[in-house]
Backbone:
């Protein structure tokens, strides 16, 4: 299965209750890529240093965590497992907005 993906953002809605990932992260890049994926009928996920691959609508709590180099191997193992569980065969990873593309 093809999936669009982008990284999370430092800026987050600080509401204490759970929010879908796309609402928690305050990023026009995330919103733009989510809209593009939806318009094309392609699943969309967000790569979080805290949670690994999040479905765009997955509820998450507020958190403040900056991924550090020592955590990368553990995160890579988590993401590999999540890719398998979600049956993602092609991951199109975006580091910028899809606007204009």
Residues:
């Amino acid at each position: 299965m093809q999936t669009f993906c982008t990284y999370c953002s430092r800026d987050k809605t600080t509401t204490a209750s759970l929010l879908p990932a796309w609402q928690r992260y305050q990023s026009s890049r995330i919103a733009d890529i989510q809209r593009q994926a939806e318009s094309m009928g392609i699943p969309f996920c967000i790569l979080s240093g805290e949670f690994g691959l999040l479905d765009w609508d997955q509820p998450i709590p507020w958190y403040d965590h900056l991924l550090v180099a020592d955590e990368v191997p553990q995160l890579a193992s988590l993401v590999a497992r999540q890719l398998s569980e979600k049956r993602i065969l092609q991951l199109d990873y975006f580091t910028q907005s899809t606007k204009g593309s």
Notes: The two ends are 22 Å apart (CA to CA). The mean pLDDT is 92.
